[in-house]
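Chapter review. Work through the record for VOC family protein before attempting the end-of-chapter questions.
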Amino acid sequence: MSQYVSGIRLLVQDYDEAIDFYVDRLGFTLVEDTALDDQGKRWVTVAPPGSRETRLLLAKAADRDERGMIGCQSGGRVFLFLTTDNLKRDYERYKRNDIVFVREPVVQPYGTVAVFRDLYGNLWDLIQPAEPAVSG
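Structure tokens for VOC family protein:
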């Protein structure tokens, strides 16, 4: 059996501003942007460069309850984890693109990690995994 998480729904205020943030500022790929009805509902998915499985579904909040959850879908804790092969490169590029980091890079046993905030306030870990220990 083979399974994987194909998508995570992320509540947004506006499709186009979310696309601008994830595609233009973070460098994600716009995978799909399809109109679903004549009332402005769209199916919008984005993915980090090189990602083949998991995508973010940018879902415009439909009512007051959903709008109240924008930016705090994880209760103020880190919500999403973006793994990179070069944290220094991506950290510097994101800083140039005005991404707000709330924790600077730090080395942990599992890798180097920095925490940034998306345009709505959700927290993300940017992680470069530690190199596996070489046994002699």
